[in-house]
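Let us work through a complete example step by step.
Step 1: write down the sequence.
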Amino acid sequence: MDRFLSEYIDRVRSAFVAVPENAAHQVAFAFLSFKLGIYHDAAGRCDQALRLLEGRGVPPILATSLRIVRERADALSRAQYDAKLPFLFTKGDLPYGIIDPSEPVTDPDLFQFTNALILLYAVALTRSPEDEQALEEQEKYVLQLFATYRKSLQK
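Step 2: predict the structure and record it as C-alpha cells.
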C-alpha cells in the first residue's frame, strides 16, 4: 500500500472503532458503487449506513462524509454535474481529512468530496473485513482522487 495512504488510514483507524461491521459493509458498498458509477445504489448505501450508525458514538465526520457522497451520487444519477454540495466539513472535522487543512482550497466542492470519499474508503477498509480485498483493489483509484485534487491546486 502507498505509504501516504497507509499513514492516513493508520491515523484515523482508532477514531472509527465504534463503527459496526454491518454499517462498515454499507460504507464499503457506497464507496464501491460510487466508484463503479452505480450512483443510485451508492446513494442508497449511504442512507443505509447512516441509519446503522445512529447513536453509535462515531465521529460526526463519517455521517457528513456519507451525506456528501450521497448528494454527489444523487446529483450524478440525475446528470447534474455542477451541483454544489450542501454539507460541509467543520474545522473540527479537518484532522480526519487526508488533505492538509492548511493547504489552499481552490475548489471547495472537490476538497469536500475528495476528503469524504477517501474517508469512506479508510473506514470501510479498517472496519469491514469481508470487503477488504475488493477495497484494496481500489487503492489506485483512491490515489488518483487525491492526485486530481492536488493538480487542481496547481492551476
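Step 3: interpret the result. Residues 3-154 form one domain.
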